Structures are given as structure tokens and as C-alpha cells.
Amino acid sequence: MPSAVRLGLTGGIGSGKSTVARMLAEFGAAIIDADANARAVTAPGGSAISAIASQFGPAFITADGAMDRDAMRALAYADNSAKERLEAIIHPLVGQEGSRQAQTAAAAGYRCIVFDIPLLVESGRWRQQLDRILVVDCTAPTQISRVVTRSGLDSEAVQRIIAVQASRTQRLAAADAVIFNDGLTLDGLRAEVLQIALAFGLSLN
Predict the structure, then answer these.
(1) Phi and psi for 101 in degrees, rounded to 5?
(2) Using one digit for the tens of pLDDT, what is the confidence trace for 74-111?
(3) Is 8:112 a contact under the CB 8 Å cutoff?
């Protein structure tokens, strides 16, 4: 049996990456969600909690035993090193869980394993673990419009988020395949995703 293709999926906020991931799952891919794994390791009883308490102090752990996201976010704004120190704890654990999930998916016979990684380009450590990278792309005005509509954030807040993510140019430079999700209907997007799915041995069947 041929080994499973390891496909990295990324895109800026509001690009439609999560929708593409769901469609790839419908076409038979296994999805490994890096954000979900990061939330799991920082949830009550998560594998990162002890190290976070040791590194940052008990004030950064909530009463129910989770990482206090608001406190950590405030610290990251005040201390430039805090984000790097937190990532040094979380990223290896997320990587270990992703590897475990990938092994399980491969053993179950999945032909394509999709690593849904919002900060794939920013992290710089995923490329060597992937066979291909798929970027979901769109223009900044489209990103802003989508996120404002779905989240209630104002446009300035969305622009600040976009500014700290990798640029479109950086993501496109890392891409082996691109879906330009700007002005597409859901059916149009599905057709684009199907072409990608077929290229990696997936189908509706």
C-alpha cells in the first residue's frame, strides 16, 4: 500500500481555510487540526499546563486548571519574549500529538493526511514534515469583510491580525498548490477543492 500523502493546509485569517479542510474531509482526507491540538494541551489537565505554570507562574493558570488565555495575551503584548517561551512549550507537544494522529490515520488506510496549520509559514518548522503545501488565498479586503461579518471585530482589529501573520507573498512562495478563494461561491470552491483532492488520490466515493 502506498504511503499517505502529508498535505499542509494554510491560509490567512478569513481565507476560507477551515471550509476547505471540511471539504477535504468530505472527500476522504484525514484532518489534523493544529489549533485544536494547541487548545487541548492548554485545556484543564492538558500536557502543557505544568510547564506553563513553572515557566510563567500560577497566575497564568485558571481555577479549573487551564491556561489563562487573557492573561497570557496581555503578557505577550508587554513582554516580547513571552510568546516565544510559550511556543517553546506548546509547539513540541502539538507536534507530538499531530504525529500520533498521523500514524493512526495512516494505519487506518487514509491516502491523504491534511495538517491544518494556520501558522505553517510563520513557524518555519513544518515544511520538512510535509509532502506538499496547499495555500488558500484571497485579498486583504475580502479577509477583512469576512472576519468582520462573522466575528463582530472591527476592520482595524482585523487589519492588526493580518499584519502579524505571514504576508500573502510569503504564503504563496511556500505553496505547491493554491486555491484563490475570492469571489467563489461554495459550489465553486468545492469544485476547486475536488481538483486538489483528485490530485492526491481522493474522491467522493
Answers:
(1) -65, -40
(2) 898 788 799 889 989 998 999 899 999 999 999 999 99
(3) no
| pLDDT score at 76 | 83
Torsion sign across C-alpha atoms 182, 160, 84, 87: negative
Q: Is 147 or 129 the better-scoring residue by pLDDT?
A: 147
Q: What is the DSSP string of 147-200?
A: HHHHH---HHHHHHHHHHSPPHHHHHHH-SEEEE-SS--HHHHHHHHHHHHHHT
Distance from the first to the final alpha carbon of the chain: 19
Question: Mapping DSSP to helix (H, G, I), strand (E, B) and coil, where does residue 104 land?
Answer: helix
Per DSSP bridges, beta strands 5-11 and 132-137 are parallel
Give the span between the Cα atoms of 22 and 31, in whole angstroms. Answer: 8
For 109, the grid coordinates are: 488506510
Please give the pLDDT value at position 130.
Answer: 92
Q: What pTM was estimated for this model as a whole?
A: 0.87
User: Nearest-CA neighbor of 5 among 197, 205, 173?
Assistant: 197
Taking CA 196 as the corner, what is the angle to CA 133 and CA 105, rounded to the nearest 5 degrees? 70
Residue 26 grid cell: 468530505
